[in-house]
Design goal:
It is a single chain. The protein is 34% helix and 16% strand. The protein has a single domain, classed as Spore Coat Polysaccharide Biosynthesis Protein SpsA, Chain A, CATH 3.90.550. The chain has 7 helices and 7 strands, in the order E-H-E-E-H-E-H-E-H-E-H-H-E-H. It is of the alpha/beta class and 250 residues long. Helix 1 links the parallel strand 1 and strand 2. The chain has a 7-stranded mixed sheet with strand order 3-2-1-4-6-5-7, sandwiched between helices.
Length: 250
């Protein structure tokens, strides 16, 4: 396994205030290289987690200074890829900055997210995407955000404006300690709820968003399948919340 930085004794050093970038990838070969190159300019470790891709898009990235590629033998879902990235990031950093590989996030916004962490606090920072009403933004993204925002709140989660944003900063190892049952996109929803239950602060910071046009944009969103998965996740969380409330009166 390639290390990010080692001293003369072979001991890994932490860089740039103990942050690392984690990018989950599944067949995003058309946009991935550009995102990785821009993320490298942050001068912190970049961990790419290839979740069973078949397009060869991660080939050659290991040769880039400061970049490590981890691979799943088969597609296990975004949540599983994030957990794999968190586990590796926790070896070299205290915080994981996550961004999607589809080109919608601007790595240049990461310093603003980092600066929003209050002294002595360990929150989750969420990049609230601006301009989501623009014509090039898919209707599924706008609808999905509103749907998730409502049900996150109903599940006892935070009242924030963009629960579906994948551009975040997570505190490590606290985030790894949450017992998250969801292994796919729903991981990002469930962790917000459980963080809020545990009194961990959730802080939003405005970020820009760009949706690549035509064939450049790779989306794995499947309306019916993901709606059913979201429904299952929210039903489980709401049931858990109600049972916890009922237990108070027993």
């Amino acid at each position: 396994m390639r290390s990010f930085s080692e001293n003369k004794d072979g001991v890994k050093k932490r860089e740039n205030r103990s942050f690392a970038v984690v990018i989950p990838v599944y067949n995003h070969g058309t946009t991935l290289a550009g995102i990785v190159e821009r993320a490298r300019r942050l001068a912190i470790p970049v961990i790419v987690v290839d979740d069973g891709s078949t397009d060869g898009g991660t080939a050659g990235l290991e040769a880039l200074q400061g970049v490590e590629v981890l691979r799943h033998a088969m597609n296990r879902g975004k949540g599983a890829a994030l957990r794999t990235g968190f586990e590796r990031a926790a070896e070299v950093a205290d915080w994981a900055i996550t961004m999607d590989a589809d080109g919608q996030h601007h790595p240049e916004d990461a310093p603003g997210l980092m600066a929003a962490i209050p002294d002595g606090r360990r929150p989750i920072i969420v990049g609230a995407r601006q301009g989501m009403q623009a014509g090039e933004v898919p209707w599924t993204s706008r609808f999905g955000r509103g749907f998730s925002n409502f049900w996150i709140r109903a599940s006892g989660g935070p009242a924030i404006s963009d629960t579906q944003s994948g551009f975040r900063i997570y505190p490590l190892p606290e985030s790894l300690a949450f017992r998250i049952a969801s292994g796919r996109y729903q991981f990002e929803l469930e962790i917000l709820v459980k963080a809020h239950w545990s009194k961990m602060p959730i802080i939003e910071v405005p970020v820009m968003v760009t949706y690549p046009k035509g064939r450049l944009r790779v989306s794995h969103f499947r309306p019916f399948v993901d709606f059913m998965r979201n429904t299952h996740t929210f039903t489980r969380l709401i049931t858990r919340r109600l049972l916890n409330k009922a237990a108070i009166f027993l």
